[in-house]
Design brief:
Helix content is 29%, strand content 22%. The strands form 8 sheets. An 8-stranded mixed β-sheet has the order 12-11-8-6-7-14-15-23, with helices on both faces. It is of the alpha/beta class. It starts with a helix and ends with a helix. Helix 20 runs parallel beside helix 21. It binds adenosine-5'-monophosphate-propyl ester (PRX). The site of adenosine-5'-monophosphate-propyl ester (PRX) has 22 residues, from helix 13, strand 20, strand 24 and strand 25.
Length: 677
């Protein structure tokens, strides 16, 4: 299939136009200290050695009982890893480090306000806090293994404490990104059938303290309308002992965690020996249909995969200070702030705030003050930091040995700034391509073994075997320069187990397209469809071009266009809505929203604002449209389908192509005039 066709089938695709760049070699100093320098790792993890190769990752963990079967495919494509094994995630991330590293910092919590002190939480202190919180969950809330709990927490140390307390008991946590609205939180409460919501009263963002508790009230109210009763709302206090929100606590429903903890001081909770294949957490993400789907991640497989990749790709050593600037409300934070790094006894930084507050030097001051030497962020943050302070890093005395980029394609020009200015030409960079569903990295270089190539993620990780298919299911061999749908040939331990409560959707969305035999129990028949378009170069390095489905990636935040459209349709006046991505210098893309009104209503500035406010209210500030265009009609096919591709071309000032097959070609000129002004 031609690249052009793929671009056209995808309305939500980020078009990446750069070509193959030259290699950059990691420094001799980096290689000399790296965790993985043995090139035979690729042979050890070849398809011939699959699935047994993943024992190597599992052996980084402590097991109560080893597995009977490394990969159970009897319910394909719901694969079970390390079946029969017993393990506890909280034990592996905390308890087992006490013998040698009790006094080592597990978490550096950096509040947004610089006048507030950084908190350094040792492994021993983390253990105490996790135990006491587990006691609250078990004894006060009556929760047990398999129950779901929704967390709606900001970037604070209490979030990993809560997650690890859940994991200690086998409670399945579902953390909702703190920036999401009460309404988005409610959808996730309902879908996961949670009876307990854990939140925080307030947090800082851009120098302001935000009332977060009000979102909990809204979430509980909306969930109740959908017959999901939340019995208890546990409220952490940003300042223990002080309430920083305006909304009143509800008697008999809302409890301050800091008060509850007083009854459990000194209580120790034995980690529950969980089956390796038990669910560990849900992470909701956007897909092609309106409703976010709960990606269900398992216990043993997930932890083995994130521990292995943290060690070999993030190159974390005991003496390193590791800072991943993602939000724990997204998968990156789960895998690479909390579980992976803590499983290998890292010191992990948690930063409450935004990278540009109070000024462009904030990140580099944090790096300097804490001695951070491994830095992990997204292209959107790199672009923003470059724009506001291109020469800022040089003013600070820090030295990164390693840097990661994740979440979006990174332009070679931006990559080079990251390498030269942020990394000061000394740090190895890994561009890690993966997804909420995949639990951990799919493609990346192993930094001491493979050279870097700006703009390309790299080859498949050891044990991850990517393949690019055309629309007819033929493999596109490497080096053809042709884009196609990137899939993974084989399952791996970090991959999600299913969509919570919706196995059919799991199979249809991710496997049906290239499945060779729907009754097959052989993993070879079930390639995993990622939903991304990609090109594979001769050397096996993969360049990701963007999504081929109705997903857009705004500042590295994944949003479904259908989700945004349904939020707009909540507004009484709106008859039809279409969201298209428009290129943005910093965010990668932004949503542009087109709406047509019901008869009898008229366009106005106020109405456009009301519609945009609905997006923020229903989803959160990240969903805000660049512009709401109220049009008299949508361009449509004869069968009535809205042609988002045409709208996307107009928004991005591109040629709209042939519109004569539309049912209403005349509307295109009208919309063009409107958008061009
Ligand atoms: O399109 C790919 C893009 O982000 C999507 C996954 O988003 P999410 O589930 O929110 O997970 C983000 C963090 C893992 C992918 O389908 N993406 C992710 N990493 C990269 C990327 N695109 C290009 N290069 C990357 N390194």
């Amino acid at each position: 299939m031609a690249e052009k066709e793929i671009t056209e089938t995808s309305e939500a695709q980020i078009a990446v136009h750069w070509g193959e760049e030259a290699y950059y070699a990691p420094s001799v100093k980096f290689i000399a200290q790296a965790n993985m320098t043995d090139e035979t790792i690729y042979d050890r993890f070849s398809l011939d050695n699959f699935p047994d190769c993943f024992k190597e990752y599992a052996d980084l963990l402590d097991w109560y009982k080893y597995w009977d079967e490394i990969l159970d495919t009897s319910d394909a494509p719901c694969f079970k890893w390390f079946k029969g094994g017993l393990i506890n995630v909280s034990y592996n991330c905390v308890d087992r480090h006490l013998a040698k590293n009790s006094n080592k910092t597990a978490i550096h919590f950096v509040p947004e306000l610089e006048e507030e002190k950084v908190e350094h939480i040792t492994y021993r202190e983390l253990w105490v806090r996790v135990n006491e919180m587990a006691a609250v969950l078990r004894d006060f809330c009556g929760l047990k293994a398999g129950d779901r709990v929704t967390l709606h927490m900001p970037m604070v140390a209490e979030l990993p404490v809560t997650m690890l307390a859940c994991a200690r008991l086998g409670i399945i946590h579902s953390q909702v990104f703190g920036g999401f609205s009460g309404s988005a939180c409610a959808d996730r409460i309902v879908d996961s059938a949670s009876h307990v919501l854990i939140t925080m009263d307030a947090y800082y963002r851009g120098g302001k303290i935000l009332d977060h508790k009000e979102k909990a009230d809204e979430a509980v109210k909306i969930a109740a309308k959908q017959n999901q009763k939340v019995d208890k709302v546990l409220v952490w206090q940003r300042y223990p002992g002080k309430y920083s929100a305006q909304t009143p606590m509800v008697d008999g429903r809302d409890y301050f965690v800091n008060d509850l903890l007083k009854d459990y001081y000194g209580v120790r909770v034995d980690p529950v020996k969980m089956p390796a294949e038990a669910p560990l957490f849900l992470m909701y993400t956007s897909g092609t249909t309106g409703k976010p789907k709960g990606c269900q991640h398992g216990t043993g497989g997930f932890l083995a995969y994130v521990a292995g990749t943290s060690k070999y790709v993030q190159d974390i050593h005991p003496e390193d200070v590791y800072w991943c600037m993602a939000d724990i409300g997204w998968i990156t934070g789960h895998s690479y702030i909390v579980y992976g790094p803590l499983a290998i006894c890292a010191s992990s930084v948690i930063f409450e705030g935004v990278p540009n507050y109070p000024d462009a030097g904030r990140c580099w001051r944090i790096a300097q003050d804490l001695g951070v030497n491994i830095f992990h962020t997204a292209p959107t943050a790199i672009r923003a930091l470059r724009k506001i302070g291109p020469d800022e890093p040089a003013k600070y005395d820090y030295e990164f040995k390693h840097m990661t980029t994740v979440g979006e394609p990174i332009e070679p020009e931006v990559w080079k700034w990251y390498y030269e200015k942020v990394g000061k030409g000394k740090a190895a960079i890994v561009d890690t391509w993966w997804q909420t569903e995949t639990g951990g990295f799919l493609c990346s270089t192993i930094p001491a073994i493979k050279p870097m190539k700006p703009g390309s993620a790299g080859p498949g990780m050891p044990g991850i075997h990517p393949i690019i298919y055309d629309d007819d299911g033929h493999e596109i061999p490497p080096g053809k320069g042709i884009a196609g749908n990137i899939c993974i040939r084989n399952p791996w331990p970090g991959m999600f187990q299913t969509i919570w409560g919706d196995r059919d959707r799991f199979v249809t969305n991710y496997f049906a397209r290239y499945c060779k035999d729907p009754d097959s129990k052989d993993w070879r028949d079930w390639p995993y469809l990622t939903g991304d378009a990609a090109v594979m170069a001769e050397d096996g390095y993969v360049r990701i071009l963007g999504r081929t489905d109705d997903v857009i990636n705004v500042s590295g935040h994944r949003l479904g266009t259908k989700e945004l459209e349904s939020a707009a349709l909540v507004v009484e006046e709106v008859a039809e809505a279409a969201v298209v991505p428009i290129k943005h210098e910093i965010k990668g893309v932004e949503p542009d929203l087109y709406v047509a009104l019901k008869p009898g209503y008229h366009a106005s500035e106020e109405l456009a604002k009301k519609i945009n406010d609905a997006l923020v209210r229903e989803i959160g500030p990240i969903a805000k449209a660049r512009k709401v265009w109220i049009v008299s009609d949508m361009p449509k096919t004869r069968s009535g389908k809205i042609m988002r591709r045409v709208l996307a071309s107009i928004s991005n000032n591109r040629d709209v192509g042939d519109t004569m097959t539309l049912a209403n070609p005349e509307i295109v000129e009208e919309i063009k005039k409107m958008v061009k002004g």
